[in-house]
Amino acid sequence: MEKLIIYAAVGYPRKTENPHFPAVPQTWEGLVDSAVRAAEAGASIVHFHGPHDDKHRIIPEGWGKLVEEIRKRSDVLIDFGQAGAPLDQRKPLLELGANKPDFMAVSLTNHDYRRHSPERGAFDVYYQHPRDELEEYARCLKAAGVKPAWEIWHLGGMWNFEYLEKLGLVEKPYWLNIFFGTPGGVWSPPTVEEISHRIANLPADAPFMLAPRGTAGPMGQTRMLTFGIIKGGHVRLGTQDMAWYTDGVPAESNAQIVGRIARISRELGREVATPDDARRILGLPPRK
Length: 288
Prior knowledge:
Mean pLDDT: 95
Structural class: alpha/beta
Largest sheet: 8 strands, parallel, barrel
Radius of gyration: 17 Å
Strand content: 15-25%
Distance between the termini: 27 Å
């Protein structure tokens, strides 16, 4: 069985939650430190959302600066999030030269979330991702040498993925990220039965990663990730997805969350991947 890729979604600074969730970065400097510490604990990929202007538009140079600061301190691989943003805003992120990411998250289906914040209460989030946009993503990322992290929220995403595959727009090894438990129209059951069902509909040789969130809860997430380790999958966790360590107990840091799943994997006899291991597994060129 391949070594385990641990993917830490450290997210973005969320100051309003920090009194209750100390693991959530408070500043961009704190995000860099959190990413580096997560890598030291066993993560081979870190995922984050970078700065925006006052009109909520991506500031590409701000994202690039975060990459630069992380890479000064770690060889961890970097995935740019915010798959819901307009593609035109994300294209400049592929033009950052040495500071471009290794991966970019791309949702294979529309976003349809139900969220809650202290300021806004419950609210809905919708983003459309038509197939012509997915085709353009595949072409743009290939031209930039950035690997797509294909987000699959339900099995309709696999239909779209196979559509792109038939057009010759995706290349092996694929990197398929499977989500569970997010409230809203993309929800799917955060259960081991659903994991088995989804895996059965993936290409047999595709590296895949499990991302239980939301209604899974912290202990449900841990159980699902443990089952995924046994099934040969890789794992996503971190304060962007779940800021609790156990039920009712906030996590102390992203490194703490990563460290637990690394221990579980080793105790199950599966070694944890280094960034160089992850490059090999996912078909990235060797580190320069």
